[in-house]
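#structure-requests
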Amino acid sequence: MRVRRPAVAGLLTAGLVGALLAGCGSAPTPPPVFNTPASVPPTPAPGRAAPAGQLDVATRTLDLARGDRPLPVTVWYPADDAGPFPVVLFSHGLGGEPADYQAVLAQWAAAGFVVAAPTYPFTSQGGSGGNALDVLNQPADASHVLDELLALDGRDGDEFAGRLDVERVAAAGHSAGGITTVGLFTAARDERLDAGVVLAGSALGVGTAFSGAAAPQLFIHGELDEVVSYASGKAAYDRVPWPKAMLSLPDGDHGQSLLRPGNPAYDVVIATSTDFLRWTLYGDGAARERLTEAPPAGVAVFDDQL
């Protein structure tokens, strides 16, 4: 297993703290784009072929904590004796909780991923005080959850023993969870991560100093987002120096069109994110080919720099 760098202490200056307090809706001036070419990571050779069809999904709760920070984790995983399965760490948005994202996370699990979603102590729906600034502590929380989860793969008698592909790990998140995800590739880089999915997120507070080995990134953002502006998400995307893609939804809002079934944008979000994960974590060539297909006109635009 790759060794994770220690989380960076003190992620923000006082000025950036003030920016976060001002709210996620304001769009900062887009920073310049990196021009330094990045080496494209080799397509991973699958430890096992990506599942051909939808798998049955089970759930499990892990009672974790990082010091005095409780981090209960809901895990959606394939109810299949086969394995190992790649792991996706998912971070919820401000005022949310993992159950809010069940439709998306269960779909990923059915496609062959173990999806672990912590409930953060101060930004969740039931969190203490709804402290938005605590987002800055969440990359370290997320890395701790990975520590504990991946350790179960080698724990005799645990139901996840031998079923987690500890060498194929991605991070994903929505809104404040998207900021948490960006932080895992910047100020608090977790070297175990092979890929990232940022849903309606930005780099506010965690910066754009992407570091470590190249890790493909997928950004998904509604152009009508009134909470985290499309411009701020695009600015973060532009700074990614690695293989990357951005799915833009012209009529998309902050969450409803991205995360709720029953509309064409949701179907595109699910298909694109699932194929991205299948390609980056399983080395699924067919999934990569599907990503090159243009989404339905008027529903989404896909910028492919993978």
